[in-house]
Specification:
six-stranded mixed sheet, ATP binding, 2 domains
Length: 249
């Protein structure tokens, strides 16, 4: 396995009176796409939000490039975590509907205060991935379709190079053609050695993109290994996920 970029060791997370993560151990290798799979309520979104510092780990530790970024004694400081080169695309997309597509992109860029300061070569690459964003550049983001909003959410996360992307169910509710656009975007990011931790229910996307896979159940990682090995083992899929990936390809 490649050198780990992100590691979670025995991470527990409480949200109010609820104990959601129960000792999560997770390794995300550098330069690969790691799929985070599991049934609804398994703790996948809580894991991403804990990594990003939106919820504080009550015990355990989180390390990025070997440096501690979370756990008791380490403040859950989302801006500080983002400054390390970690971007998060939440399931609700997190775009600003009253702002234009352009304004959303500028807000996401740390090195630009206006559109003219955006990296034009990178912007052209993003437009190549998501042509609709160029077409609707000056439109309010709230008027975009659901698929276009998801494209914008991903584009915001990659408007500048990031070392690690945390992405929560990007294909949810999208048409197959738009899902293919997203798959191609993540393939190109992986080719650029961007590391991705991807929560996804679309098994075709998981099979197409995943190098590694971690399966969660009841707030714990109950399986980790290669995505190819899981995809080839119907019995393991049924036991861990309650479905056959081949039947949903």
């Amino acid at each position: 396995m490649a050198e780990p970029l992100l590691e979670l060791r025995g991470v527990h997370t409480h949200i109010g009176a609820y104990h959601i993560l129960h000792g999560v151990d997770l390794v995300v290798p550098a330069g690969q796409v790691t799929m985070l799979l599991g049934r609804n309520g398994a703790g996948k979104t809580t894991t991403l939000r804990t990594i990003m510092g939106l919820w504080a780990a009550s015990s355990g530790e989180l390390r990025f490039r070997g440096e501690r970024i979370g756990g008791p004694g380490t403040p859950a400081d989302t801006p500080r975590i983002a400054q390390r080169g970690i971007a998060y695309v939440p399931e609700n997309m997190g775009i600003f509907g009253d702002l234009t597509v352009q304004e959303n992109m500028v807000l996401a860029a740390r090195s630009a205060r206006r559109a003219a300061q955006l990296d034009t070569a990178r912007l052209d690459w993003i437009f190549g991935l998501f042509p609709a964003l160029k077409k609707f550049w000056l439109y309010p983001a709230g008027k975009l379709s659901g698929g276009q909003k998801q494209m914008l959410a991903v584009a915001r996360a990659i408007v500048e190079p990031r070392e690690l992307l945390l992405v929560d169910e990007p294909s949810k509710g999208l048409a197959p053609a738009i899902v293919q656009n997203l798959i191609e975007a993540f393939r190109q990011l992986k080719a650029q050695r961007t590391t991705v931790l991807l929560v996804e229910q679309n098994v075709a996307m998981a099979r197409a993109l995943g190098d590694r896979v971690a399966v969660m159940d009841n707030g714990r990682v109950v399986h980790d290994g290669s995505m190819a090995a899981l995809a080839a083992d119907d019995d393991l899929q049924q036991r861990l996920l309650g479905l056959s990936l081949g039947a949903h390809a």
